[in-house]
From TrEMBL:
Top-level taxon: Eukaryota
Cross-referenced InterPro entries: CRAL-TRIO_dom, CRAL-TRIO_dom_sf, PI_Transfer_CRAL-TRIO
Parts forming coiled coils: none
GO molecular function annotations of the record: phosphatidylinositol transfer activity
Protein name: CRAL-TRIO domain-containing protein
Organism placement in taxonomy: Eukaryota, Sar, Stramenopiles, Ochrophyta, Bacillariophyta
Organism: Odontella aurita
Listed PROSITE patterns: CRAL_TRIO
Pfam families: CRAL_TRIO
């Protein structure tokens, strides 16, 4: 079974902030710095908040915690975002467009209120929020209170608390929760386990209806992508930035697939706004129509993404193509023969009761 999520403590935040930016070559640092130097102070802050660890530190109501989000840390986390966009544009041979891509992503995050999205689900049992820290279900007795304390102190999570002004208002919370819950009910999507490099594994089950509100469909994937990225950052202590996606399509009927327009929109949204975040996209037991759909989608996928798609049929291929990425103790049975994680997943519990950065381990 996957070890419990770490408690999000100041010491863990410092460890994450100390992790180096993973430049692939020496020249990247100067190029990324040139991008950051063209940004306003508010843009640098928004870029840094793509790091979940930096976000909860900078949004903390505790002066000592907020002090961890120094100018140097802010710049480093913004440089991480710049590196990912630079890397993506280098793959397309358009390095000079990295700044444009970077700013487009900041605009996207602002329009979709992604920072607020991280804090949109409330715990059912106590009125608090399933967000930054741990609770007894995931961290044991050492975890601190996870309840809504109200007032200016905000919401305490482990040893952290978030300022009220950083949280979504009631209308935004209700809107986002309803949209995500609706799409999750049609097609469960969640973080479950870690790969061999301590990166999050995002799992997707077959869809049960063709009914699809496009905005809800896209929003649910953004929400879980953010949870996956946060889980990778916390579990790897900032040493890794990617996640692994594994989808179970064995019993996925074509009559239940979303419209091609929605799939195309989602693909473009994730490629443009989450560059260098996907390690592999593993499709287990894809039926013929899924293979045909992938062929239709190929022209809309960048070359790097195309190379990350792995189609798996049969037990032998699961052992051959999945086991290099996931150990049995971190795998659900549909991923690997003898996978030790339970097949039963309560997505409502995942959204409400599991800390934002944690894998579903109940």
């Amino acid at each position: 079974m996957t070890p419990p999520a770490p408690i999000l403590t100041p010491a863990l935040l410092v460890d994450i902030f100390d992790a180096p930016v993973p430049y692939k070559e020496d020249s990247e640092e100067a190029q990324c710095s040139a991008i950051i130097d063209k940004l306003s102070a508010s843009e640098v802050e928004a870029a840094a908040r793509t790091s979940y660890a930096y976000h909860v530190a900078s949004a903390s109501s505790d002066d000592d915690i907020r002090a961890l989000a120094t100018d140097d840390v802010r710049r480093k986390m913004a440089l991480r975002m710049a590196r990912r966009h630079l890397e993506q544009k280098c793959l397309h041979g358009s390095r000079m467009k990295a700044l444009e891509s970077f700013r487009d992503c900041l605009k996207f995050r602002s329009e979709w209120e992604v920072d607020k999205l991280r804090f949109c689900f409330r715990r059912k049992d106590d009125g608090g929020d399933a967000m930054a820290g741990g609770d007894a279900a995931t961290n044991g007795a050492a975890a601190a209170d996870h309840k809504n304390e109200g007032g200016s102190r905000g919401i305490k999570c482990a040893s952290l608390s978030i300022r009220e002004e950083e949280l979504p208002d009631a209308a935004t919370r209700a809107k986002y929760e309803a949209m995500i819950r609706a799409d999750e009910a049609a097609q469960p999507l969640f973080v479950r386990g870690r790969d061999v490099k301590d990166r999050a594994v995002v799992v997707k089950f077959p869809r049960t209806t063709a009914e699809c509100d496009e905005d809800s469909y896209v929003l649910a994937h953004i929400y879980v992508a953010e949870r996956g990225v946060a889980a990778t950052e916390i579990y790897s202590r900032g040493r890794e930035e990617k996640l692994l996606a594994v989808v179970d399509f064995e019993n996925y009927g074509e009559s239940c697939r979303p419209p091609f327009r929605a799939i195309k929109r989602l693909s473009r949204t994730l490629q443009d706004n989450y560059p260098e975040r996907l390690d592999h996209f593993i499709v287990i037991e894809p039926p013929f129509w899924v293979r045909a759909l992938f062929s239709m989608m190929r022209p809309f996928l960048d070359p790097d993404t195309k190379g990350k798609v792995v189609l798996v049929n049969g037990e032998a291929q699961r052992v051959e193509r999945v086991s290099p990425h996931i150990e049995r103790r971190e795998a659900m049975p549909f991923m690997l023969p003898g996978g030790e994680l339970s097949s039963k997943v309560d997505v409502d519990q995942y959204m409400h009761d599991i800390p934002f950065f944690a894998s579903y381990e109940v």
